[in-house]
Amino acid sequence: MIFDRNASSGGTDVTHSQNTPQVTIQTPGTYEVSFHGNIGPVSTSTLPLTVSLYLQQQGATVPGAFIQHTFQAATDSAGVAFSQILSVTSVPAVLQVAGQGGNFFYGGINLTVQKIGGTPAA
């Protein structure tokens, strides 16, 4: 998913370039990652349509950061959200929200990445 704008940012622990899907964590630590937005099937979708969204870190799916919704009508839409705590020990760590399941639209999406602690003890 492409995040077209940047909201407020404090510091340089987390970076994002507008109109790109990747958010980069620059500093090791513990982070809370929260996503929310709206999704729906495009008018040409074969129904029912099941759409899955999930958080990826370095291209691998992050356990627990996943949603799934099944649409029964072309006029349906759904508000979706997930959040997860990440322990980042190797940087830069690239995050993105990926989707699968067919053609769908999305809007009003927001990804918040907030540092909540220092580097975890080994």
From TrEMBL:
Q: Where is this region: Disordered?
A: 1-22
- What is this protein's record name? BclA C-terminal domain-containing protein
List the InterPro entries hit by this protein, alphabetically. Tumour_necrosis_fac-like_dom
Tell me the domain of life: Bacteria
